[in-house]
Amino acid sequence: MRSRLLVTEHASDWSDLREVAVIECLTTGHNTQLDRIVWLAAGLLDLQSDDDSEPAVFEAFLDPRIPVPPEATLLHGVTAVHVAGQGHFGQIAQEVRDLIGDRPVVGFNARYAAGFLDAEMHRHGRKTIYRANTYDVQAALCDAWGYRPTLSNAVTRLGITREDGSRAVSHAVSTARMARVLASASPDTLANAPGDRWVDEDGDHGAASPTRPQLAAIRDLGGDPGIVATARQAAQAIDALGRDMPEELPFLGENVEESTEEAILGSEWVWFVALVLATLAAWFFL
Fold it and tell me: In the chain, which ranges are continuous DSSP H helix?
């Protein structure tokens, strides 16, 4: 039987929230029935507390027991090597279930994360979280800004500092910080969050996802595709990695300049030889 994710996804009403479970997960794909979680982060947060300390985050690498596709690795950087020898979700299912309890679930893309958690719980015979309400940070920001931002766009516009460390924990802590903003900021304040620090020159807000060729190029140049979230960031990363090429390999501009100089020198010799031949020919016929 399929797991049932009967949720109420909230976008704008955050004012009455108190203790919530913040979740973030990375997966082998986007199908909750066929794909699995490979990296999970979850923590508890009291949105009504004056304590600004970060939530203690539970984190786990998980063996999905299925292959990790290359396209998934390009997006989040997790490979089969990372999860080899790790435990599977069934070993932590009850711990995660107890942590979440009946609390509302908050995520940057809450429906995605809650959907995978629900499927994993059902798969391992645990109580699902289908009764939990989900509060979607991305949807709430979409209501305020008129577009669905990436996590990178959102933290930049809100002036939130991202934590160093693992990707899943960094995303979970960033989501917790954004949840605090959503629970306390007025709609006008949120709508007027400054955008000049992140809007692309062409006005597309930098929200386009990186393309597969861009991610492959970053990997081929020795970079980490998992650190970029937008096409603009990917282009900047490719440019930066390209500048780190060995010094003995000349840049294209240098090749062009050298070729031009050689062409000029060669043309001067051609004119000199032509002049000599013309002089000899004139002397012979005269």
Answer: 70-76, 80-83, 93-100, 110-123, 137-145, 151-157, 167-184, 187-191, 212-220, 231-243, 252-285
- What phi-psi label fits residue 58: left (phi over 0), alpha (psi between -120 and 50 degrees) or beta? beta
pLDDT digits 0-9 by tens, 167-196? 788 889 999 999 999 998 888 888 888 754
Which amino acid is located at 135 in the chain? Y
Q: Residue 202: its pLDDT value, please?
A: 38
User: In 204-225, which positions are buried (b, 16+ CB within 10 angstroms) versus exposed (e)?
Assistant: ebbbeebeeebbebbbeeebeb
Q: Is the pLDDT of residue 161 over 70?
A: yes
- Give Cα separations from 72 to 15, 36, 83, 133 (angstroms): 36, 11, 13, 28
Residues contacting 207, CB < 8 A, separation 6+ = 147, 148, 149, 150, 153, 230
**Closest by Cα among 223, 135, 222 to 183:** 135
DSSP 179-211: HHHHHHS-HHHHHT---TTT--TTSSTT-SPPP
What's the pTM value of the predicted model, to 2 decimals? 0.64
Strand order in the sheet with 19-27: 9-10, 134-136, 105-107, 19-27, 37-46, 57-61
Answer yes or no: are the C-beta atoms of 239 and 260 closer than 8 Å. no
Q: What distances in angstroms separate CA 152 from CA 5, 126, 139, 162, 193, one per listed residue?
A: 27, 34, 15, 9, 15
Amino acid, single-letter form, for residue 147: Y
User: Measured between alpha carbons, how far is 11 from 81 in angstroms, rounded to an integer?
Assistant: 37
Q: Are 183 and 15 within 8 A, CB to CB?
A: yes
- Cα angle at 111 between 139 and 28, to 5 degrees? 120
Q: Is 106 within 8 Å of 45 (Cβ atoms)?
A: yes
